[in-house]
């Protein structure tokens, strides 16, 4: 096909001005996968021990069966090998198009490969940026260095060690796969250092940012670069990466040198919080403004009460996908969205959502810390306030408005004892709960009335959380890395906050008691408590599968066996029952296998173990 001469764009045209250079960079923002809205008309992004699905075509179900190789062909998973781009309206500062909104979004493998290449194209053409001021050139390169590191990290979270690609390949590729995760993580760390040096603290305060004032939400900053620098180092320090797929993995053994480096990176984000750049939600009411109570088509987590957002995908997805994400823990007949209900598992809730006294249920029942407050015959009493804020249990009220069908006003999640001895109307049937719980963390509620497709249709007014990095996550990773490097009660030279204080700060806003001194004094038990706090605070936000793998525990019974809670209508008994015993062997099921042809390009790129 003939191409008009004026339609051809030379590389000098692309990088000749700030506007055209930034236009090229903008494409990388739209390659960031927002896990929660990366699906079709329903969401399937919970791959850990925290959710259960019955649909055999979902990757979460295939993963439970140990069929990790099916990531290649599962186009409804955000991990799928190919992108699914469609047209979509501009849904924020970095949205992509303005036509009828499409449900297709980028997928991790293909989007990351494209993103790495685009970043390298920018870096390779630095000399062509002669029409840019030094500040403009800096921010263009800063974004490119960040994205080159970030997209490598996206691959590494799921496939493990991967070569640090720092050139634009035009012919044969022969970079050997690194021997260790640490090797490539340290190389990527240099990219984050460059990004930190070049990126601004706030685009609004820069001359180039003034041109897009009011539309700079989501753009890369020093804070984002510091946060992901720390995350890259903490993941590299974690037990799975430390033991490098070798036998004898110990979940409490980390690389202390890398952990200390991670602490210093996170400390810089906490300094920015002190300077007013970020702000934690201070109580559970403020938390709603971060999780869902944000006007539609705006960026959540940026209001003064909960200015937690550090970085997220551009969220240019179909409105139905966004709503389905917000209702993914709720049944389709109640929520009125296209999602398939992901049942919140009993094992995850029981093991992590503890008691108001700050103890896990296991520690509370031990009696070692005082009189137990957990009653097995009243398992929903005296719980951590976040349990009531983010989880629906039996007899909870959805709404009392006349327009809500009577059957849906009070949740009936019992397994036996209803009419004819059967289960409640919201239990043990497709589209409802198979476990005895729903999760409502991102589900809109106004004055005690939750969204219902009939009677209180409020979901379309709001925008659910945008995942990837927020300030709470930084506090949690800071505490974990600091405990590894220095213990629970020693502050680093870079910031005056101990791991114990960091965790207690998060508990205080939720109304949960501090970690008990006896637990703080026990190094391994305090690590268990750090992990439990992370599990609760970041519940259902797409971090869990990465966490239980990097900690080296995914193959253990506690994390492998998904359970439900059976009980009768009158609560005369409660019984934990296995739902599925996941197929998970170490190290085979800890990393996704590379597509076979990826390992056949040249010698030196080995397949992951067991595949």
Describe the 3D structure.
The strands form five sheets. A two-stranded antiparallel sheet has the order 1-3. The chain is 37% helix and 6% strand. The chain starts with 10 loop residues before the first helix and ends in a 30-residue tail after the last strand. The model is unreliable at 1-7 and 87-102 (pLDDT under 50). It has helices at residues 11-14, 18-29, 59-64, 108-124, 134-159, 181-198, 207-210, 222-237, 239-243, 256-274, 284-291, 319-326, 332-335, 346-352, 361-366, 385-390, 471-486, 499-510, 517-520, 523-537, 544-550, 557-560, and strands at 51-52, 309-312, 343-344, 391-392, 438-439, 445-446, 449-450, 468-470, 561-567, 574-581. A hairpin with a 2-residue loop joins strand 6 and strand 7.
Question: What features would you highlight for this structure?
Answer:
globular; mainly alpha; two-stranded antiparallel sheet; 611 residues; 22 helices; two-stranded antiparallel ribbon; disordered N terminus
CA radius of gyration:
24 Å
Count the E strands.
10
Give the biggest sheet. Answer: 2 strands, antiparallel
Indicate the structural class: mainly alpha
| Number of discrete helical segments | 22
> Could you state the oligomeric state of the chains shown?
single chain
Quote the average pLDDT: 91
Placed side by side, the strands forming the largest sheet appear as: 1-3
Instruction: Note the gap between the termini.
Output: 44 Å
**Percent helix range:** 25-40%
Indicate the low-confidence ranges by residue numbers. Answer: 1-7, 87-102
Beta percentage is 5-15%
